[in-house]
# Entry
Amino acid sequence: NAGVMQNPRHLVRRRGQEARLRCSPMKGHSHVYWYRQLPEEGLKFMVYLQKENIIDESGMPKERFSAEFPKEGPSILRIQQVVRGDSAAYFCASSSLLRDRRSGANVLTFGAGSRLTVL
Amino acid sequence: TQLLEQSPQFLSIQEGENLTVYCNSSSVFSSLQWYRQEPGEGPVLLVTVVTGGEVKKLKRLTFQFGDARKDSSLHITAAQPGDTGLYLCAGGNPFSYSGAGSYQLTFGKGTKLSVIP
# Structure
């Protein structure tokens, strides 16, 4: 029973290159979330997707960042023209349609993260 | 902007000692979650508290949600080296989207706990 799978686990890019991070949700999960953890900072919400739909991208930087969750295949977080400030751990989480019956919220399962280093 | 402040930032204790870490905010949250994150891994959910004043126990870990739902604490009794890790609190507020009920989590920066054998 594989959990949330993220790859690559580590990615090194030079300034100006593109970074693509992939996330396969847990089996049976149809909601995907991306969070970013900058050095010495807490995790920050970026985007929430369902299959073929971006539900909430209020945490995404306005430029260079995009996310998708196609009908087939993993969710992809794409960062174009990377800069040093993009260096961070990017975590994907997934959830099912079932909610925690007390809080009314979806229960997120996080992946191990993709660590991006921009040289 | 909702913020969660966690204290202390770092804590190093001897095996067998008790400890409490705190999570405070000026905002009200509908629920609060505690996670543990180990180096190189993602956060793993420990508990969700929902009701003001709620206390939940998970073996040697006791979680409390403040009456006003603005703060929370995690108390560990007789800490063990296996408790070492980064403890994160995260506040949640449901937002309405077509009944999906999902929400964004606001995370604190965490308390880094080291338990020395």
